[in-house]
Design the sequence.
């Protein structure tokens, strides 16, 4: 049993998962978190009578959380999840609505009957997404891409056999256009690019496998909302003796030759046998290791999208809305060009409304709803966000009101706003990017920073800004991979 001391910078979902894994292996783990609460972007806030999950709302890949429960000898059925009655409701500007159920077969039926697609085409498309995911995940998501061993094993050849079936230059949109007759179906499947903050008109077609996670599998919501994910990890961490230091920002990683030897925080200096950074990797270099040469090419990759979120307490209940609701733009291409090229939000952006009070009854007073109303946005490059937010707010209210047939502004009794500037300042995510790097080219997976340092033997990286990338399941895998390296290098 090792008593080596490990310091983790940050308690996002990846930092927490790392802390549990290492503590369970007998390390003496200390987590330093600049916020007063654990969880990073997966946190919760009460505004008046309403509770909101402030960040993520879609939980894919619960099996990666189960893996941690299993490792700890805990029963994953205690992490209670509610199967959703419906997956997504879609609203188009011309009045068409799609209500997608929680079953693949019924989803296919709805798309065929409302959008005129062929059942066999949809079935083949979704089967292919499943096969791609099963072949690609073990190599690109569940293992390091920075170890030669990964390029010689079975999973490499399985992944390679799927990749070579692709025209490597095709984008998600090109594959979807070739597959479907109706532009609305193309738009629906293009939307999965937004799940890791990418652009379907640039991202490689292989990413169409994301649809598999939502349509082929039953969608769930943790019983108490998304906060349950980080709450449960925090509880496991405490159970295995992890020590948390909240409201204590790390300001420097201390180094000696080819090793790191601890951290300096706003309050003191702490020794460690290894350091794991859950801080955005660009900021780790820029702010915590200023005197170290940076891997510029890796750090200069295009960032993922950011977001503007309006947390609205709504004093009415809307039966036509479900947990996840999308109000599509007519011009998806212009929306993405705005986000990634022009760095602006178009006048008619796609809106996502998440309403946990549909399932978690205490999240809003009886007859009221908690609307997490989000649009994807460019990262912060110094736009005049205050003016932008006024414009975006007006456009959102007009669009939703038109779709629902009444002025929703009269029902907003509470409002809080999150924008790219706040995302950067609250979570130290560079420019407010929410998923690290975008996957807007076919090399993106290979250009993410590894989960270890090439310069310092005992420095490791976890979280969405490093391999394997954005979203919760990938952040959980970053923890697993980093821990494997750490155990080899530090024991
Ligand atoms: C509005 C929004 C919606 C999203 N929707 C989804 C979704 O539906 N599904 C999904 O899977 N993902 C979604 N995401 C992305 C998701 O939040 C991330 O995938 C994941 O939570 C990131 O986890 P992380 O561990 O990488 O980092 P973070 O959550 O960013 O945590 C990093 C932590 O490190 C701390 N920290 C940083 N620097 C220091 C320092 N120097 N000293 C001390 N502490 C420090 C920060 O305070 C923070 O707590 C969304 C994000 C946002 C903001």
Sequence:
């Amino acid at each position: 049993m090792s008593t080596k001391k490990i310091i983790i910078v940050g308690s996002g979902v990846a930092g927490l998962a790392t802390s549990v894994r290492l503590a369970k292996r007998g390390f003496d783990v200390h987590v330093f978190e600049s916020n007063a609460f654990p969880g990073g972007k997966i946190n919760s806030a009460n505004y008046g009578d309403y509770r909101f999950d402030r960040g993520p709302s879609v939980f894919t890949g619960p099996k990666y959380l189960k893996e941690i429960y299993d490792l700890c000898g805990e029963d994953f059925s205690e992490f209670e999840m509610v199967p959703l009655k419906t997956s997504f409701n879609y609203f188009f500007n011309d009045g068409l609505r799609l209500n997608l159920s929680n079953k693949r077969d019924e989803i296919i039926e709805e798309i065929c009957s409302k959008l005129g697609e062929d059942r066999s085409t949809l079935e083949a498309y979704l089967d292919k997404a499943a096969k791609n995911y099963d072949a690609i995940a073990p190599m690109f998501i569940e293992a390091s891409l920075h170890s030669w061993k990964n390029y010689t094993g079975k999973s490499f050849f399985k992944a390679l056999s799927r990749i070579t079936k692709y025209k490597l230059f095709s984008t998600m949109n090109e594959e979807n256009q070739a597959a479907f007759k109706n532009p609305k179906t193309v738009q629906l499947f293009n939307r999965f690019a937004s799940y890791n903050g990418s652009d379907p008109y640039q991202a490689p077609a292989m990413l169409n496998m994301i649809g598999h996670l939502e349509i082929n599998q039953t969608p769930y919501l943790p019983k108490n909302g998304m906060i349950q994910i980080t709450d449960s990890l925090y509880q496991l961490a405490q159970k295995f003796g992890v020590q948390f230091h909240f409201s204590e920002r790390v300001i420097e990683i201390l180094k000696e030759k080819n090793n790191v030897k601890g951290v300096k925080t706003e309050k003191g200096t702490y020794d460690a046998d290894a350091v794991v950074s859950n801080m955005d990797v660009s900021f780790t270099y820029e702010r915590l290791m200023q005197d170290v040469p940076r891997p510029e090419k890796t750090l200069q990759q295009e960032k993922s999208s950011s977001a503007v979120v309006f947390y609205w307490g709504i004093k009415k209940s809307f039966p036509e809305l479900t947990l996840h609701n999308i109000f599509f733009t007519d011009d998806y291409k212009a929306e993405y060009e705005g986000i990634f090229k022009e760095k602006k939000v178009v006048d008619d952006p796609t809106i996502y409304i998440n309403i946990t009070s549909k399932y978690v009854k205490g999240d809003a007073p009886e007859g009221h709803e908690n609307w997490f109303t989000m649009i994807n946005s460019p990262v912060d490059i110094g736009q005049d966000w205050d003016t932008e937010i006024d414009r975006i707010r007006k456009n959102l209210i007009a669009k939703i009101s038109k779709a629902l047939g009444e002025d929703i502004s009269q029902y907003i009794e509470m409002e809080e706003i999150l924008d790219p500037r706040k995302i950067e300042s609250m979570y130290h995510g560079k420019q407010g990017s929410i998923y690290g790097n975008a996957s807007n080219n076919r090399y993106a997976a290979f250009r993410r920073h590894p989960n270890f340092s090439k310069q310092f033997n005992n420095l490791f990286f976890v979280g969405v800004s490093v391999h394997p990338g954005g979203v919760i399941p990938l952040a959980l895998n970053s923890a697993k991979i980093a821990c494997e390296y750490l155990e080899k290098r530090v024991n």
Notes: The pocket of flavin-adenine dinucleotide is lined by residues 9-15, 32-35, 40-42, 55-58, 249-250, 278-279, 307, 309, 374, 423, 427-429, 434-435, 463-464, 470-472, 475 (CB under 6 Å). Residues 309 and 374 are 4 Å apart (CA to CA).
